[in-house]
Protein backbone atom coordinates (compact mmCIF):
# COMPACT_ATOMS: atom_id res chain seq x y z
CA UNK A 1 0.00 0.00 0.00
CA UNK A 2 1.25 3.46 -0.85
CA UNK A 3 -0.18 5.74 1.85
CA UNK A 4 1.25 8.98 0.55
CA UNK A 5 -0.94 11.06 2.90
CA UNK A 6 0.79 9.42 5.88
CA UNK A 7 4.19 10.40 4.51
CA UNK A 8 3.08 14.04 4.84
CA UNK A 9 4.77 15.22 1.66
CA UNK A 10 5.65 18.91 1.74
CA UNK A 11 4.40 20.04 -1.64
CA UNK A 12 4.49 23.41 -3.28
CA UNK A 13 1.46 24.15 -5.40
CA UNK A 14 -0.58 26.96 -6.89
CA UNK A 15 -3.00 28.88 -4.64
CA UNK A 16 -5.82 27.72 -6.93
CA UNK A 17 -5.37 24.12 -5.74
CA UNK A 18 -8.27 23.15 -3.49
CA UNK A 19 -6.90 19.71 -2.69
CA UNK A 20 -4.61 16.90 -3.83
CA UNK A 21 -6.33 13.57 -3.26
CA UNK A 22 -5.11 9.97 -3.35
CA UNK A 23 -7.79 7.43 -4.29
CA UNK A 24 -8.17 4.03 -5.93
CA UNK A 25 -6.62 0.69 -4.97
CA UNK A 26 -3.59 2.27 -3.29
CA UNK A 27 -5.84 3.47 -0.46
CA UNK A 28 -6.74 -0.01 0.79
CA UNK A 29 -4.78 -1.83 3.45
CA UNK A 30 -3.28 -5.09 2.12
CA UNK A 31 -3.53 -3.99 -1.51
CA UNK A 32 -0.90 -4.43 -4.21
CA UNK A 33 -1.58 -1.50 -6.54
CA UNK A 34 0.07 -1.18 -9.92
CA UNK A 35 -0.12 2.60 -9.67
CA UNK A 36 -1.13 5.39 -7.32
CA UNK A 37 -4.16 7.41 -8.41
CA UNK A 38 -3.96 11.12 -7.60
CA UNK A 39 -6.42 13.86 -8.50
CA UNK A 40 -5.71 17.57 -8.18
CA UNK A 41 -8.82 19.65 -7.63
CA UNK A 42 -8.63 23.30 -8.60
CA UNK A 43 -10.72 26.41 -8.34
CA UNK A 44 -11.82 27.63 -11.75
CA UNK A 45 -8.61 28.01 -13.80
CA UNK A 46 -7.85 27.33 -17.47
CA UNK A 47 -7.23 23.70 -18.47
CA UNK A 48 -3.71 24.50 -19.71
CA UNK A 49 -2.77 25.88 -16.29
CA UNK A 50 -4.33 22.83 -14.60
CA UNK A 51 -2.19 20.49 -16.68
CA UNK A 52 1.03 22.43 -16.03
CA UNK A 53 0.38 22.59 -12.28
CA UNK A 54 -0.60 18.90 -12.13
CA UNK A 55 2.71 17.93 -13.78
CA UNK A 56 4.64 20.03 -11.23
CA UNK A 57 2.86 18.21 -8.40
CA UNK A 58 3.50 14.84 -10.06
CA UNK A 59 7.25 15.50 -10.22
CA UNK A 60 7.24 16.28 -6.49
CA UNK A 61 5.20 13.18 -5.57
CA UNK A 62 7.44 10.85 -7.58
CA UNK A 63 10.01 11.23 -4.78
CA UNK A 64 7.62 9.53 -2.33
CA UNK A 65 6.69 6.35 -4.22
CA UNK A 66 8.38 3.67 -6.27
CA UNK A 67 5.34 2.80 -8.40
CA UNK A 68 3.89 4.92 -11.22
CA UNK A 69 1.57 7.83 -10.49
CA UNK A 70 -1.66 8.23 -12.44
CA UNK A 71 -2.55 11.92 -12.26
CA UNK A 72 -5.78 13.65 -13.20
CA UNK A 73 -7.23 17.07 -12.52
CA UNK A 74 -10.59 18.80 -12.30
CA UNK A 75 -11.89 22.16 -11.36
CA UNK A 76 -14.46 21.94 -8.58
CA UNK A 77 -17.40 22.21 -10.99
CA UNK A 78 -15.99 19.55 -13.31
CA UNK A 79 -15.36 17.28 -10.34
CA UNK A 80 -19.05 17.19 -9.43
CA UNK A 81 -20.25 16.88 -13.04
CA UNK A 82 -22.25 13.69 -13.68
CA UNK A 83 -19.89 12.75 -16.52
CA UNK A 84 -17.04 12.35 -13.98
CA UNK A 85 -17.32 8.62 -13.24
CA UNK A 86 -14.58 8.72 -10.60
CA UNK A 87 -16.23 11.36 -8.39
CA UNK A 88 -17.95 8.89 -6.04
CA UNK A 89 -14.73 6.92 -5.46
CA UNK A 90 -12.76 10.10 -4.87
CA UNK A 91 -15.38 11.61 -2.57
CA UNK A 92 -15.90 8.41 -0.59
CA UNK A 93 -12.44 6.80 -0.48
CA UNK A 94 -10.15 9.73 -1.31
CA UNK A 95 -7.51 10.85 1.18
CA UNK A 96 -6.24 14.42 1.13
CA UNK A 97 -2.47 14.78 0.80
CA UNK A 98 -2.78 18.34 2.06
CA UNK A 99 -5.00 17.79 5.11
CA UNK A 100 -4.20 14.10 5.78
CA UNK A 101 -7.85 13.11 6.18
CA UNK A 102 -10.74 11.98 3.98
CA UNK A 103 -11.46 14.41 1.15
CA UNK A 104 -15.18 14.33 2.04
CA UNK A 105 -14.36 15.94 5.39
CA UNK A 106 -13.85 19.25 3.57
CA UNK A 107 -17.58 19.20 2.97
CA UNK A 108 -18.48 18.30 6.57
CA UNK A 109 -18.94 14.60 5.74
CA UNK A 110 -17.32 11.48 7.18
CA UNK A 111 -17.35 8.37 4.93
CA UNK A 112 -18.19 5.05 6.60
CA UNK A 113 -18.94 1.51 5.51
CA UNK A 114 -21.75 -0.34 7.24
CA UNK A 115 -21.76 -4.11 6.96
CA UNK A 116 -24.98 -5.88 7.91
CA UNK A 117 -24.70 -9.60 8.51
CA UNK A 118 -27.08 -12.44 9.36
CA UNK A 119 -26.07 -15.36 11.55
CA UNK A 120 -29.44 -17.11 12.00
CA UNK A 121 -28.72 -19.87 9.48
CA UNK A 122 -25.28 -20.66 10.92
CA UNK A 123 -24.42 -23.54 13.17
CA UNK A 124 -23.46 -22.62 16.72
CA UNK A 125 -19.75 -23.35 16.11
CA UNK A 126 -19.71 -20.94 13.13
CA UNK A 127 -21.47 -18.23 15.17
CA UNK A 128 -18.75 -18.60 17.81
CA UNK A 129 -16.03 -18.51 15.13
CA UNK A 130 -17.59 -15.34 13.70
CA UNK A 131 -17.65 -13.73 17.15
CA UNK A 132 -13.97 -14.57 17.71
CA UNK A 133 -13.09 -13.14 14.31
CA UNK A 134 -14.83 -9.85 15.18
CA UNK A 135 -14.01 -9.49 18.88
CA UNK A 136 -10.95 -11.66 19.40
CA UNK A 137 -10.27 -14.43 21.86
CA UNK A 138 -8.07 -14.38 24.92
CA UNK A 139 -5.16 -12.01 24.35
CA UNK A 140 -5.70 -11.85 20.58
CA UNK A 141 -7.60 -8.84 19.25
CA UNK A 142 -10.41 -9.26 16.73
CA UNK A 143 -10.67 -7.24 13.54
CA UNK A 144 -13.03 -4.73 15.14
CA UNK A 145 -10.40 -3.60 17.61
CA UNK A 146 -7.43 -3.93 15.26
CA UNK A 147 -9.03 -1.73 12.60
CA UNK A 148 -11.14 0.61 14.76
CA UNK A 149 -14.42 -0.97 13.72
CA UNK A 150 -17.56 -0.46 15.71
CA UNK A 151 -20.50 -2.75 16.38
CA UNK A 152 -23.30 -0.17 16.13
CA UNK A 153 -26.16 -2.63 16.57
CA UNK A 154 -26.54 -6.41 16.62
CA UNK A 155 -25.69 -7.49 13.08
CA UNK A 156 -24.25 -4.12 11.92
CA UNK A 157 -20.58 -3.13 11.85
CA UNK A 158 -19.30 0.33 10.95
CA UNK A 159 -15.76 0.78 9.61
CA UNK A 160 -13.56 3.26 7.77
CA UNK A 161 -13.55 2.76 3.98
CA UNK A 162 -9.85 1.86 3.85
CA UNK A 163 -10.53 -1.37 5.75
CA UNK A 164 -13.46 -2.57 3.62
CA UNK A 165 -11.53 -5.29 1.79
CA UNK A 166 -10.08 -6.74 5.01
CA UNK A 167 -13.49 -6.98 6.67
CA UNK A 168 -15.20 -8.40 3.60
CA UNK A 169 -12.50 -11.06 3.13
CA UNK A 170 -12.69 -12.14 6.78
CA UNK A 171 -16.48 -12.17 6.90
CA UNK A 172 -16.73 -14.05 3.61
CA UNK A 173 -14.65 -16.90 5.11
CA UNK A 174 -17.52 -17.65 7.50
CA UNK A 175 -20.75 -16.31 6.00
CA UNK A 176 -22.07 -15.26 2.63
CA UNK A 177 -25.22 -13.52 3.85
CA UNK A 178 -24.13 -9.89 4.35
CA UNK A 179 -24.66 -6.51 2.73
CA UNK A 180 -22.46 -3.45 2.42
CA UNK A 181 -23.67 0.15 2.57
CA UNK A 182 -21.54 3.18 1.89
CA UNK A 183 -22.70 6.20 3.87
CA UNK A 184 -21.56 9.77 4.39
CA UNK A 185 -22.20 10.95 7.93
CA UNK A 186 -22.43 14.58 8.89
CA UNK A 187 -19.39 15.52 10.98
Question: How would you describe this structure to a colleague?
Answer:
The protein has 187 residues and is an alpha+beta fold. It has 2 domains: 4-106, Beta Polymerase, domain 2; 111-186, 2-Layer Sandwich (Alpha-Beta Plaits). It has helices at residues 47-61, 76-79, 87-93, 124-135, 143-146, 164-172, and strands spanning 17-23, 36-42, 69-75, 95-96, 109-117, 136-137, 140-141, 150-153, 156-159, 178-186. The chain is elongated and about 65 Å long. The protein has a 4-stranded mixed β-sheet with strand order 3-2-1-4, sandwiched between helices. Strands 8-9-5-10 form a 4-stranded antiparallel β-sheet, covered by helices on one side. The model has no long low-confidence stretch (mean pLDDT 91). Helices cover 27% and strands 28% of the residues. Strand 8 (150-153) and strand 9 (156-159) form a beta hairpin. The chain starts with 16 loop residues before the first strand and ends with a strand. The protein is built from 6 helices and 10 strands.
Which percent bin holds the helix content?
25-40%
**Helical stretch tally:** 6
Strand order within the widest sheet? 3-2-1-4
Structural class: alpha+beta
CATH class of the largest domain: Alpha Beta
Listing every helix as H and every strand as E from the N terminus to the C terminus, the arrangement reads EEHEHHEEHEEHEEHE
Q: Give the number of domains.
A: 2
The CATH topology of the largest domain turns out to be Beta Polymerase, domain 2
Q: Estimate the global geometry from the Cα principal axes.
A: elongated
From the alpha carbons, calculate the radius of gyration and give it in angstroms: 19 Å
CATH architecture of the largest domain: 2-Layer Sandwich
